Amino acid sequence: MVLSAEDKTNVKAVWDKAGGNIGAFGGEALDRMFLGFPTTKTYFSHFDLTPGSKDIQAQGKKVADALTLAVNHLDDLPGALSKLSDLHAHNLRVDPVNFKFLSHSLLVTLSSHLGNDFSPSYHASLDKFLSSVSTVLTSKYR
Amino acid sequence: MVHLTDAEKGLVNGLWGKINVDEVGGETLGRLLVVYPWTQRFFDSFGNLSSAAAIMDNPKVKAHGKKVLNSFSDGLKHLDDLKGTFAQLSELHCDKLHVDPENFRLLGNVLVVVLGHHLGAEFTPQAQAAFQKVVAGVANALAHKYH
Hints:
The complex is a heterodimer of chains A (142) and B (147). By secondary structure, chain A is mainly α. Chain A has 7 helices and no strands. In chain A, helix 2 packs across helix 6 (97-114) and helix 6 runs antiparallel to helix 7 (120-137). Chain A is globular and about 40 Å long. The model of chain A has no long low-confidence stretch (mean pLDDT 96). With 147 residues, chain B is mainly alpha-helical. Chain B is built from 8 helices and no strands. The radius of gyration of chain B is 15 Å and the shape is globular. Chains A and B meet through helix 2, helix 6 and helix 7 of A and helix 2, helix 3, helix 7 and helix 8 of B.
């Protein structure tokens, strides 16, 4: 799967619209994921998993910052995400299915906040982007 | 079988009452075809699916989306027996339509995204979680008779 020029433009446009809220959106996506897909909580037994907790907010900001890094390096996702890819492969070892749960939860978060700025084309580009990031993060697993 | 708490049933029915099922149906099917273009394989007879705009405006897409979501709506009235409710549709999707059940999961998740889009902040994480259970239940019920 390749991100077209239009996909890249769309993803950057969404990130611009989200602006300073991206960190909070990361936290909300995690809240949605833990509630909607409870098996994902197994990776966070060391967290306070109450929705909106400080642990979740901090983690949400981490996730958002990593995605922002990706958005700024759409022409070289493997390069930009190489360290995170190593981390997920060798330390965290999160089962690949969970990246779909988080990606979906991020999409729902963005759709609920962006209104008219979440057109079907933007939805498609975002889905492709998140899928590409997920592929890179699981690329060194074996 | 889907296990929703009373609170979750309240959330699901309350929010479902606020949406235009016909419109959301058309939008959900449209977005499925835009976001996951390989799903267009089932709709060769639908005419112009050449762009996102063409898909979203296509009258056959809207009509079919309306049909699908009204059927889903019926399911919401029988959350205690989704397998029974969708038994015949399950056979149809297997034997006549030859639809991979993965597509039911894709459609269910697109519906959840569309609900978030329409309902905004009202589509809380708790509401989403309740709907995730419902769409998973419907997808499983539709896959149940496959052989």
